[in-house]
Amino acid sequence: MKKIIVCGFVLVLAAAVIFGGCSRKPKYTVPEYQLAAGEETTSAPGIIINKGKREVFMFAVVNGKYFTQPTRHGVVFADGSNGDKSVLIGLGDEKVFYAAMVAVGFGPSNKLTIDDMSKGVSVEGEPLDVFVAWDGKEVPFANVIRASQERPMDIRFGGNLENAKEYNTGCILCLDSCAVGITSNAAYETGASETINFYGKKDVLPADGTMVRVIFRARAFS
Question: Domain of life, per the record (predicted)?
């Protein structure tokens, strides 16, 4: 009888390990990076700042799932509750990202509220130019996303630090206006993603699992 109990325990334990492991999010490693002139590290290894250029960038991994499935999440920290729901999986904490944006001189609005999420409100905050970089080239973020209803992308530094701390979603860049994401797209009001679908562009982005950098800069007005 003891042998049966032990064997049964081992089988249950093995099943717990196997199925528990399957439910865990994959772990990503920040690549080695040689800082360029003017660049500084932050408390998150995957986030680099350049105060002179007013620039923040984050390492991220392409999530090919959203080439064909819709999502409202552009970039989300891998360890956030929405970490596997974005076109690009960020390798830096969203709270550190907020601090990095402030450190280089960007101004958040912190005006959008959770109640606004059902009211069709557009996010405010300092306008940003965002790029995705790999293989020596930079591509505007607008060019790596497609939507069922196209509008010119308008990324803003919404801020939302307190909501980010409360909800811990990991949201760094949302594709419609959001009261939790640190940055989001003012071109689409809150709730827009209920009727509009967003996808990553397979013909523009590199393959699933490719390491890229997401670069945030002050808007260059022409």
Answer: Bacteria
Instruction: Please answer whether residues 178 and 114 qualify as being in contact, where contact means their C-beta atoms are separated by less than 8 angstroms.
Output: no
- Token look-up 């965002």 returns 130
d(CA 19, CA 212): 31
Q: What is the SS3 string spanning the chain?
A: CHHHHHHHHHHHHHHHHHHHHHHCCCCCCCCCCCCCCCEEECCCCCEEEECCCCEEEEEEEECHHHHCCCCCEEEEECCCCCCCCEEEEECCCHHHHHHHHHHCCCCCCCCCCHHHHHCCCCCCCEEEEEEEEECCEEEEHHHHEEECCCCCCCEEECCCHHHHHHHCCCEEEECCCCCCCCEEECCCCCCHHHCCCEEECCCCCCCCCCEEEEEEEECCCC
Burial class (CB in 10 A: 0-12, 13-18, 19+), 19: exposed
pTM of the predicted model as reported, rounded to 2 decimal places? 0.88
Largest Cα–Cα distance of the chain, in whole Å?
80
- Evaluate the CA torsion angle 81, 130, 108, 51 in order and state its sign: positive
Instruction: Tell me the C-alpha distance between 162 and 149, whole Å.
Output: 31
Evaluate the CA torsion angle 53, 56, 58, 63 in order and state its sign: negative
Residue pLDDT, tens place only, 178-208 = 999 999 999 999 999 999 999 999 999 999 9
* pLDDT (mean) for 4-14: 38
